[in-house]
Design a protein that fits this description.
- By secondary structure, the chain is mainly α.
- Among the domains are: 35 residues, no CATH class; 127 residues, no CATH class; 208 residues, no CATH class; 99 residues, no CATH class; 72 residues.
- It is 55% helix and 4% strand.
- The strands form three sheets. Strands 3-9-5-6-7-8 form a six-stranded mixed beta sheet, covered by helices on one side.
- The longest helix is centred in the middle third of the chain and has 36 residues.
- It comes from Gallus gallus (Chicken).
Length: 1157
């Protein structure tokens, strides 16, 4: 559709004078206005023409249309002009003019279709003056105004079209593009060729490169449609030339060359040379081409479509990989194909072929196949739409056999390509696909385990075997009066039901594909008739299935097994059968009767079918009393959503099941429920509950069945205001998730050859399980919310949750939801719902007690909050049963501590008795936890037992008992500091000495975190007295080998007298301890020894950059040596030894001599 500034393609037809040669066309001319004459298009019957075009307002008095115009219009629509010329020897010029006049398109719909995407309006060209309100406000209006069709209308309304001339089947003119801020005014030369009411080629000097016609082509086309009386019309140029004599012809040619000599002179000379040459190719044929003479018999009659631009645009969109809105653009192209099909435009299939070729050439297909990765979800959906469109095209009820054969050949070619995407979207899955082949397909009876993978084109290939010649089918789609009251065959496949209404028994997705094809090809009335027959068939099957199940019910329930009646679910199916039926019926609700007769020629092409015996009955009688297309649409949606079906293989197929279900429910939610629709809901809910294996809500379902949670939530909310009992019954039945149940019935698959591949436990391949569980949780939450204030209902819902939900995170969410609903600010707390919340919280605690869960701490804190809202008895209960709910650490550090806090006491308004009861339970819990896990719970236990002497002593004894075995020095130091803080220094000292026995500080651990604890322990011992200090120093010497730490302790012990600052600040008299006597002598010797050992250790691996640091270390060592009475001598000997041993380290020893001599 792109227009370029080059010359139009050469004309295919050769025109010549009458009698020129044996091969020339007949066609003597009668009359004529002389050379160069022209008339306005409308001519004498302009009023009639205007009326035919709808230019005159309705109700105005109009002259009857002439027989000439009626005949000329029909000929112009159907016959190529060459056939007209060959059929009639003499064609009067007025007749030629009317045929040429009526050959230009008369409808703006096609012009719009070829110059804009459908932006949401059903018919953008239908509004008066082309003005259509944008659906999405100012932004959408701005986008729509940028479309070529809208811009073309603006140019036309702005008077920008000029010099319009129609010569035969060729229209030309100029369109002035007004000056913009950054661009000057430009004049575009536009040329349009047309044939049989279709534009066959366009050119424009604007150089536009796009799929669609540019705005200038639109403006010129609409000018011709809206203002035909202002367009000067001439017969084809060859007709004018026939009327010239030799002198006139020479003058004509010379003037033409003079006016355009720079452009045409070389061509004119070349043509002259060839014509003068007897043997030239140009002289071997009769006549000469005329671009204005219309189509030849062999020309295909189709609208102009720029194939190259279609391919380029699709290639560009695919290369963008879903970015920059490319996915949306491709979907718009698919919508354009559907729009063309609906207009019965042959370019629909042509355009889809071009799109498919680019999709198949996408280099990512080979890359994904090579890497074993799957394509993106949006890209996968584009392929689905591609396959669905081909299904529609091959099911065109009026396509020719040779055309279908051509499509089949092309589809098989694409299908055989190695990278052709599979229908289930799962390249890596080698499991057999459980999808049924179409009944009339070549592989209908083939074992699915041996069937090759189905590609996105497989269904279209199989659909090529389908036909529309069945007389019963033709009667259904062609008549609203097709009934048979005398038909009494009540078998499963009877042609009529008990009302005498027609039924259509066919594989449901296939039958619905027929409906989609009829709708797509512009036969809405026929599609509706077939849709009604299919829905009535489904409803009859429902009733039959219910009757069968009632006979077998006792046996099936006794065995606890069921069968899946349909391995191929209708919701999520590649052909979307339920969505097709729903859309067809809903369209009938929205449109008036007349619009359904927009294309009334269906039976003209179909041919007469063999008549069956039937009685006439109005169309609405095919529905029960009180029913409508709307009720039928809702009912078929409920039937499809409630169908028991197997969960398909593969991530994409499973996601599609969820997505389609949600899309269908979303459409249902747009419908306001009245009493009639509520009856439909009741009827279907009861059936689904009672229909056994035919329903996803039956009493016993297969563990592989697609869960009903999302659907049941919609049913529940819809039924609740009208029939609460049925609503709860339905929702509670749907709560189950058997794939997670270890004892779920395995059942049979109703087709023995599938059992081996399906019965094994497959649920790890339920890729959407997390989404399914979240939907199950949503259903439960919806019931909890609705049941607020109803004790019986809440208990029932709680039991269902506890039985069916297996995810702790989802149960926790439900507990939180129930808590929020129960404690809404605008009402008093609902104590029953609070208890439900608490019960769910307790279940979460039990489920996560022995498993890792990153939200566990949050869960425990929340449970205490919930129990607090319930009351003191709930808090007391969780503390008494703590061992089934919490770890010892959680019980002491979170539960008991929070319960005993002042905020809890104030919140619950507790009296002294209640406070003491809670405190007693907390102390009991604390002691039990300390016994079970003293390392983590001892300190909390001591804190909780402070106010009870016996409990505190018990807790302290637990600590002492555990100190020698299981507790670390850090835990003991922490408890010791707590004891000192609480005024128990001797107990703190005891624990500190026990901690020291577990400690070991090596020579290089001078930054160890326990150093502060060691210094504190020594300070505590020093403050208690000489005996305590004397007792702890041997422990320090044994545990600490770090010289700097020991020297720090030594200095601190020499600053004050032991016991100088006793308990409560009382000062003790006494002298400083001597370094020559125990216990400080032992500490001094240990410190000097530590310095000596550390020095040798450091010198072993010392590097020059650490020399200065080492010298400082020796300086500190000298300070400690000098604390001994013979320290100076010891240090000198130490330095001399270093010089001797490490004399190889000359530079270092030189530094030692400089500092220490």
């Amino acid at each position: 559709m792109a227009e370029r500034g080059q010359l139009p393609p050469p004309a295919k037809r050769l025109c010549c004078r009458p009698g020129y040669g044996s091969g020339c066309r007949p066609g003597g001319r009668v009359g004529g206005a002389g050379p160069g004459s022209g008339t306005l298009c409308a001519g004498p019957s302009s009023a009639a023409a205007a009326a035919a075009l709808g230019l005159l307002p309705l109700g105005k008095t109009q002259s009857p249309e002439s027989l000439l115009d009626i005949a000329a219009r029909r000929v112009a629509e159907k016959w190529p002009f060459q056939r007209v010329e060959e059929r009639f020897e003499r064609i009067p010029e007025p007749v030629q003019r009317r045929i040429v006049y009526w050959s230009f398109p008369r409808s703006e719909r096609e012009i719009c279709m070829y110059s804009s995407f459908n932006t949401g309006n059903e018919d953008p060209a239908a509004a008066p003056g082309g003005a259509v309100a944008a659906p999405g406000g100012a932004a959408d209006a701005a986008d729509e105004n940028r479309l070529p069709f809208r811009r073309g209308i603006a140019l036309l309304d702005g008077g920008c079209v000029d010099n319009v001339l129609q010569v035969g089947f060729h229209l030309s003119g100029t369109v002035t593009e007004p000056a913009m801020q950054s661009e000057p005014e430009t004049v575009c030369n536009v040329a349009i060729s047309f044939d049989r009411c279709k534009i066959t080629s366009v050119t424009c000097s604007c150089g536009n490169k796009d799929i669609f016609y540019c705005a200038h082509v639109v403006a010129l086309s609409l000018y011709r449609i809206r203002k035909p009386d202002q367009v000067k019309l001439h017969l084809p140029i060859s007709e004018t030339l026939f009327q010239m004599n030799r002198d006139q012809l020479q003058k004509f040619v010379q003037y033409l060359i003079t006016v355009h000599h720079t452009e045409v002179l070389p061509t004119a000379q070349k043509l002259a040379d060839e014509i003068l040459s007897q043997n030239s190719e140009i002289n071997q044929v009769h006549g000469a081409p005329d671009p204005t003479a219309g189509a030849s018999i062999d020309d295909e009659n189709c609208w102009h479509l720029d194939e190259e631009q279609v391919q380029e645009q699709v290639k560009l969109f695919l290369s963008q990989g879903g970015y920059h809105g490319s996915g949306k653009q491709l979907n718009l192209l698919f919508a354009k194909v559907r729009e063309m099909l609906k207009m019965r435009d042959s370019n629909g299939a042509r355009m889809l072929t071009l799109i498919t070729e680019q999709f198949m050439a996408d280099p990512r297909l080979a890359l994904w196949r090579q890497q074993g990765t799957t394509m993106t979800d949006k890209y996968r959906q584009l392929w689905d739409e591609l396959g669905a469109l081909w299904m529609c095209i091959v099911l065109n009820p009026h396509c020719k056999l040779e055309q279908k054969a051509s499509w089949l050949k092309q589809l098989k070619k694409w299908n055989s390509v190695d990278v052709c995407p599979w229908e289930d979207g799962n390249h890596g899955n080698e499991l057999p696909n459980l999808t049924n082949a179409l009944p009339q397909g070549a592989n209908a009876n083939q074992d699915s385990s041996n069937r090759p993978h189905r590609t996105v084109f497989t269904r279209a290939i199989e659909a090529c075997d389908l036909h529309w010649q069945d007389s019963h089918l033709q009667h259904i789609i062609s008549s609203d009066l097709y009934t048979n009251y005398c038909y009494h065959d009540d078998s499963e496949n009877s042609l009529f039901d008990s009302h005498g209404w027609p039924l259509w028994h066919e594989h449901v997705p296939t039958a619905c594909a027929r409906v989609d094809a009829l709708r797509s090809h512009g036969y809405p009335r026929e599609a509706l008739r077939l849709a009604i027959a299919i829905v009535n068939t489904l409803r009859r099957q429902q009733q039959k299935q219910l009757e069968v199940f009632r006979v077998q019910k006792k046996e099936l329930l006794h065995k606890g097994v069921t069968s899946i009646t349909n391995l191929e679910g209708w919701v999520g199916h590649p052909l979307d059968p339920i969505g097709t039926l729903f859309s067809s019926l809903m369209e009938a609700c929205r449109v008036d009767d007349e619009s359904f007769h927009g294309f009334s020629d269906f039976m003209e092409n179909m041919g007469q079918c063999k008549s069956l015996e039937y009685q006439h009955l109005p169309a609405h009688k095919f529905l029960e009393e009180g029913e409508s297309y709307l009720t039928l649409a809702v009912e078929v949606a409920l039937i499809g959503l409630g169908q028991q079906r197997i969960m398909p293989d593969g991530l994409y197929a499973q996601e599609k099941v969820c997505r389609n279900e949600e899309q269908l429910i979303s459409k249902l939610q747009e419908i306001d429920l009245d009493d009639t629709l509520v009856k439909i809901f009741r009827k279907q809910a009861v059936f689904l509950l009672e229909a056994g294996p035919y329903s996803g809500l039956g009493e016993v379902i297969h563990r592989e069945s697609v869960p009903m949670h999302t659907f049941a939530k919609y049913l529940f909310t819809s039924l609740l205001p009208h029939d609460a009992e049925l609503a709860y019954k339905t929702a509670l039945r749907a709560m189950r998730l058997l794939v997670l149940e270890s004892t779920a019935p395995s059942g049979d698959m109703s087709r023995p050859h599938h059992i081996a591949s399906v019965v094994p436990n497959r649920y790890p391949r339920w890729f959407t399980l997390s989404h399914i569980e979240s939907q199950q949780c949503e259903l439960a939450s919806t019931m909890l919310t609705a049941a607020k204030g109803d004790v019986r209902r809440l208990e029932t819902v709680l039991e269902s949750i506890q039985k069916n939900i297996h995810s702790s995170s989802h149960i926790f969410k439900l507990a939180q939801d129930a808590f929020k609903i129960a404690t809404l600010m605008d009402s008093l707390p609902d104590i029953t719902l609070l208890k439900v919340s608490l019960e769910l919280g307790l279940q979460v605690m039990r489920m996560t007690l022995s498993t890792l869960n990153w939200r566990r701490r949050e869960m425990v804190r929340w449970l205490v909050t919930c129990a607090t809202e319930v009351g003191v008895y709930a808090l007391d209960s969780i503390m008494q049963n703590w061992f089934t709910l919490f770890t010892p650490t959680e019980a002491t550090s979170i539960v008991a501590t929070t319960v005993m806090s002042n905020s809890t006491i104030v919140r619950l308004h507790l009296d002294c008795h209640q406070q003491e009861k809670l405190a007693s339970s907390a102390r009991t819990l604390a002691l039990q936890c300390a016994m079970k896990d003293p390392q983590n719970c001892a300190l909390s236990a001591l804190t909780l037992c402070e106010k009870d002497h016996i409990a505190f002593e018990t807790a302290y004894q637990i600590v002492l008992d555990a100190a020698t075995t299981g507790m670390s020095y850090s835990q003991l130091f922490t408890i010791a500091r707590y004891m000192e803080h609480r005024g128990y220094p001797m107990r703190a000292y005891k624990l500190a000495t026990l901690a020291m026995t577990h400690l070991n500080l090596s020579y290089n651990q001078d930054t160890h975190p326990a150093i502060n604890d060691v210094l504190w322990a020594c300070a505590l011992s020093h403050s208690l007295g000489k005996n305590e200090l004397a007792a702890i120093i041997p422990l320090v010497v044994k545990s600490v080998k770090c010289a700097t730490v020991l020297s720090d302790i030594l200095r601190r012990c020499t600053l004050t007298t032991p016991g100088m600052v006793g308990l409560h600040g009382r000062r003790n008299s006494g002298k400083l301890m001597s370094l020559d006597k125990a216990p400080l002598r032992q500490l001094l010797d240990a410190t000097i020894g530590a310095y000596i050992n550390t020095t040798h250790s450091r010198l072993t691996h010392i590097s020059p950059r650490h020399y200065s640091e080492f010298i400082e270390f020796l300086s500190k060592a000298r300070e400690t040596f000098l604390m001994a009475h013979d320290g100076h001598i010891q240090f000198t000997q130490f330095i001399d030894n270093l010089k001797q041993i490490y004399k190889g380290k000359k530079k270092l020893m030189m530094l030692v001599r400089e500092r220490f001599g």
